[in-house]
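Sharing a chain and its predicted structure for anyone who wants a worked example. Both blocks are below, sequence first, tokens second.
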Amino acid sequence: MGGGVFNGCRSLKEIAIPDEINVINDCTFMNCSSLEKIDIPKNVRKIGRMAFQNCEMLAEISLPDTIEEVGDNAFDNTKWYNDYKGDFVITGKNVLYKYKGSAENVIIPNGITTVAGAAFADNKDIKSVNIPDSVCSIGFGAFCGCVNLAVIKLPAGIADIGINAFMNTKWLDNYKGDYLIIGNGILYRYMGKDTKAVIPENTAQIAPNAFYGCEKLKSVKIPNSVVSIGKGAFQSCASLKSVVIPKGVTVINSWTFCDCKKLEEVVIPDTVTKISDAAFEGCKKLGSIIIPDSVEVFGEGIFDKCGKALKITYKNNTYESVEDFENAVFG
């Protein structure tokens, strides 16, 4: 269902969601203050950010156990959430949506597979958390703002970390070392101050925002073991001049190199099939780039605010401007 499609429909009391729907997008029913009941069909796998936020009368929610992902604040300020009894609000396929408790030392129940976005956000009481081995995904800002959180036990098999999951925690602020690697080879954050970064071998993923705002960084060596680079991974690395993306990476995610104002060279391997929104926005020094024929999917504004002299080579054609490239690709 389209993002925000019913946002602010304050007279809406009940709605039947068609069985073929598999995603309820961000803000879909936000501010539907008269909505009282919702039955979510079993085909739904994802509920987006703030999807039902501020549905103040929403007391009955039928959530199937097929739901694998719940966005941050999806049910905040609903009667269902406000009246929920218990410290751990668990939904769908063992998704920990929110923690409502006030304990200093928290043990997340075994069996939880996902800690949803903002699940613990801004909790000032929590000092330590034990995350069980069953957890494989931690969402956007899950522990953001837990300023007293100093001890985190993370499972070795964790596979996905959302943007700013541990931002503004003592655990992150007190980390010693240049490369904070967690779970199954995820580089969560680069903490160094050098102009050159050499990412350790056997790193499998570079998390979203891992190098965000590293303004002194001029070069980075990415090992061939890396197969995924998260959204905004190198965003605002204002001094970064060149990057070689290793074979195995299939997607250049949104904002990956956004506002890398001195970036002059990027080598894209022929394993990449998609370049997402604003991937190179604001790369003003980028003079030329070769996009391999393997890329078939392009997001919006990939080269917005790049220099006028940028030449783009794609499928044996060299385009003398971003406009020419976009006209050829998007028609």
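Comments welcome. The chain has a mean pLDDT of 95.
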